TrEMBL record:
Top-level taxonomic group: Bacteria
Gene source species: Xanthobacter dioxanivorans
Record keywords, A-Z: Cell cycle, Cell division, Chromosome partition, Cytoplasm
Cell division among keywords: yes
Gene Ontology annotations of biological process type: cell division; chromosome separation
Name the record gives this protein: SMC-Scp complex subunit ScpB
Pfam families per UniProt: SMC_ScpB
Length: 235
């Protein structure tokens, strides 16, 4: 008589049989293992599947980061999740040893960088509005290239005659440039407060002040849309 296949036991997330300190260490190991095994940033809801209901993921992540403090890689918040990334100080060593980072895998022209910058700050935005910003039509090739790089995607239709599609940035954009959320863009609030980050001014053709202001803030934040690899090993 054939044996019935054994029913797998449910995954124990609570670990109630362990002392609190060992339980915490096991949760730390699980969370770090899941993040380490993933090529993409891991979201909170994914990590919550391997820890107890009362576990604070934020405190857990803080403890993992503390343990990695002396290591050549770190745990960073990016694109709404967490990911292991090589520290920037080791970028040159990686380049010398492997050749990684000698070329930009996603090169952008200056014009494409400015278009992407405008979309990032003013999304959702239509191609027509971008054309008004720059005083000329933005080609479909430019939009297509940015979409092909997974930096932008189609957003909701604009509530104007013809209801054209808008464009928004993606999680791929956040991940590539090392941002957790769009609020991490170079001093966005300061630019808004100074009146330099205004969609109305851009539509009126005041592109120069926008470009100069963002570039100045970008210099302070070491942020460059044209050359800002997500992994410091590619710097």
């Amino acid at each position: 008589m054939a044996r019935r296949p054994r029913t797998p036991e449910p995954f124990d997330t609570e670990l109630a049989h362990l002392p609190s300190e060992l339980r915490w260490r096991e949760w730390m190991g699980r969370v770090e293992a899941v993040i380490f095994a993933s090529p993409e940033p891991v979201l909170r809801e994914v990590l919550a599947r391997v820890v107890g209901r009362d576990c604070s993921l934020d405190l857990l992540i803080d403890d993992i980061r503390a343990e990695l403090r002396g290591r050549p890689y770190e745990l960073v918040a990016v694109a709404g999740g967490w990911q292991h990334r090589t520290k920037k100080s080791f970028a040159e060593a990686i380049r010398v040893a492997t050749g990684l980072g000698t070329t930009d895998p996603k090169p952008l022209s200056k014009a494409e960088s400015l278009v992407l910058m405008a979309i990032a700050y003013f999304q959702p935005i239509t191609r027509g509005e971008l054309g008004k910003f720059f005083g000329k039509e933005i080609s479909r090739d430019t939009i297509g290239h940015l979409r092909g790089l997974d930096f932008i995607a189609t957003g909701p239709r604009s509530p104007v005659p013809g209801a054209p599609y808008t464009y928004v940035t993606t999680k791929g954009f956040l991940s590539y440039f090392g941002f957790d959320t769009l609020r991490d863009l170079p001093d966005m609030e300061a630019l808004e407060d100074a009146g330099l980050l205004s969609k109305e001014r851009m539509l009126a053709g005041d592109l120069l002040s926008f470009g100069l202001a963002v570039e100045a803030e970008a210099d302070d934040a070491t942020f460059d849309l044209a050359d800002h690899p997500a992994d410091p090993s590619e710097a």
